[in-house]
Amino acid sequence: MLVILGISSGDSQDQPLTTILSASACTAPYVELSGGCFYFHETFMNWHDARDYCRGLSGDNISVDLATVADCDQASRIYQHIIMEYGALWHWLGGSDEGQEGNWHWVTGDSVPMGHPFWYPGHPDNYPENNCLAIHRTTGYFVAYGCENTGPFVCQQF
Ligand SMILES: [Ca+2]
Fold this sequence. Notes:
By secondary structure, this protein is of the alpha+beta class. The chain has two helices and ten strands. Strands 3-4-10-5 form a four-stranded antiparallel sheet, sandwiched between helices. It has a four-stranded antiparallel sheet with strand order 7-6-8-9, with helices on one face. The chain has a two-stranded antiparallel sheet with strand order 1-2. The longest helix is centred in the middle third of the chain and has 15 residues, at 72-86. Calcium ion (CA) is lined by residues 97, 101, 128, 130-131, 144.
């Protein structure tokens, strides 16, 4: 089902013509969760290799990167999907503080929200080598892990 929220037909300098939300807009292997299209990739890679892999899935009109999380509901849906499909395995998401210690950003450039209810208590921790963001295996909270660790990961279409 497609839901077209707004259509305008003004001059060429207008905002994008359509904003489309869809419950089934994601084509396999992407799954729709809270309006985003996510691809759960179960081959273990370190964070940078995982990011390269996701970006390699980009096409002419689709940009793919490691996944970001829009809000609590989406974080919860992503975690529930992992538990249901793959069991309690942590997964890389597209957040890091490699650019500046303690300054967490998504791959999109947006800031990662800090504290409760997103992060595991005590995370991100004070270990400067833990620069990459994963979703915790048994709680679904964000955790900061060393980027060289290998694990499954989540890509997203943008
Ligand atoms: Ca860090």
